[in-house]
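Reviewer 2 asked us to include a model.

Predict the structure of this chain.
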Amino acid sequence: MNTELLSTAMTIGILHTAIGLDHYIPFVAMSKANNWTFAKTAAVVFVCGIAHVLSSVVLGLLGILLGAQLTSLLGIQHFRAEIALWFLIAFGFVYMLIGIAGAIKNKPHKHIAAHSFLPLFVLFILGPCELLIPLLMYPAAQNGMMSVAAVAVVYSVCTIATMIFCTAVVLKGVNIMPVKKIERYSHALAGFAVFICGLAVLFWHSHGH
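Predicted model (structure tokens):
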């Protein structure tokens, strides 16, 4: 077992999640707007995190087993990333508009609370772990499938744990703020936060990569 690859999997899992605002800001926004308990928030993050890593793990395994070229998988991952990013931006924008409409009528759309989880789940299924396949799974395949499974598990655990940790930390900070006066605008602000998060990631992808 390649310990260097395992430590790399741990490092990448933690760092790529911590610096990726889209890995936790949407959860914080939806949790705050819909008054989720932390237990519910953590459960939503966990389920979405599983969907997030599993979609890339399955793609990587299929690529390795079928002998696919790495460039082909990277093309698929890039396409998924583009869809996920625009989905994030659109979701935030539409949610913000619904929230604004509710605030104007002074009737917050409580029924949308029940449907907040589904868009997040779809978002994280679409969103790929772009570094997992080229930096971890394909190099690990040279040491056999057990090595591939090991790096995938380590990466997945570190990614999901960091998602939950970052969500908890940011949510704790938001909860300290006096938000009672703006409770009427909670959905609008949540949508705005997700929308801005999406634009920030778009800017980062455009200028950072």
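The mean pLDDT is 89. The chain has eight helices and no strands. We have added this to the supplementary material.
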